Amino acid sequence: MTQNQDIAKGLEGVRFTESKLTFINGQEGILTHLGIPIQEWAESSTFEELSLALLLGRLPNAQELAEFDAELKANREIPAQLQDMIRGMPQGAVPMQALRTAVSYLGLLDAQSEDITPEARRAISVRLIAQMSTIIAAIQRAQSGKDIVAPRADLTHAGNFLYMLNGTEPTTEQARLFDIALILHVDHGMNASTFTAIATSSTLSDMYSAMTSAIGALKGPLHGGANEQVMVMLDEVGSPEKAADYINQKLDNKEKIMGVGHRVYKNFDPRSRVLRDYAALVADKEGKSTYYQILEQIEKTVVERLGDRGIYPNVDFYSGTVYTDLGIQKEYFTPIFALARISGWCASVIEYTADNRLLRPSSVYTGESDAHYVPMQDRQ
Description:
By secondary structure, this protein is an all-alpha fold. It folds into 2 domains: 20-220 and 333-353, Orthogonal Bundle (Citrate Synthase, domain 1); 226-325, CATH 1.10.230.10. 57% of the residues lie in helices and 3% in strands. The chain is built from 16 helices and 3 strands. It has helices spanning 38-44, 47-56, 62-74, 80-87, 95-109, 118-143, 157-166, 172-185, 192-201, 207-218, 226-237, 240-252, 270-285, 290-306, 315-325, 333-353, and strands at residues 22-25, 30-33, 36-37. Strands 1-2-3 form a 3-stranded antiparallel beta sheet. Helix 9 (192-201) runs antiparallel to helix 10 (207-218) and helix 11 crosses helix 15. The model has no long low-confidence stretch (mean pLDDT 90). Keywords: Transferase, Tricarboxylic acid cycle. Belongs to the citrate synthase family. InterPro entries: 2-MeCitrate/Citrate_synth_II, Citrate_synth-like_lrg_a-sub, Citrate_synth-like_sm_a-sub, Citrate_synthase, Citrate_synthase_AS, Citrate_synthase_bac-typ, Citrate_synthase_sf.
């Protein structure tokens, strides 16, 4: 029996709440946070400031930002029990599975974890934002058979992560490049992981459960895993000369090109324009790296074939080359996404639960009607 109702597959076009955090105009390629274009955030701000602005719902003043930065630095260290658990993870663990498990375990160690008051959600958010980078770096180090590097309080959030990851202090230029990459990924409206975090928190569950749910949603290659798959694609292509034939064959076979197209944008993803410029700078420093040259050829071919259908490269297309230059293994690209998006997830949960309503969508029933139970011996 099919009910006479319309279905919005994938919830496309369905509005379930209001938000003043992020605005997207996919037709014109516009992305703003608190009304400010993403290009201005990337050019003038920092990950710390954008994170606080989203938590507050407004631009912070200098004192507020200084206090928030001090809070983050004071909360960077993770408990010794969590470090031991990370060291005990099986070798070869999928990084996103390891991250999901670590964040869930962190909730067990937080005496405030079950407190869902606005004040508690905000305090836990600060700890999560601060410690996400420490957890990811610790997982990568442990999985590589290296000692876990303790955080430093004299480095920026981005610079400290690269220090904990690589064991050496990054240059000012490297830290700023990673800072910009984080800014570009902090929030992106009602994507699958943000919606999942809100859905979990709408039941009045705790922040750690909401963030663990979001990490699980981000793990999929149709969401957070695309940038890793872009690098796999570049290795398959091998050289710029082979790029056009590779892409044309994929398109002729109606296969998906990773890092190309977006559910929302029918124009260039504005984040990809920012990141492309920085990827170009990295490539120029290295004498036009092979990866960037391949990406240039792929973009040219994709725009020629698909541009009239509104399909262009997205933010995942260039992010992998930037991360690779910073010493980040491709298996950790999606955890890096979570490192940035944790701020958006927390801000969205805080915003939604301030006027909470349990999410309970309905579905259209397409099964049988007037059926009756058949005893086992009578079934065919």
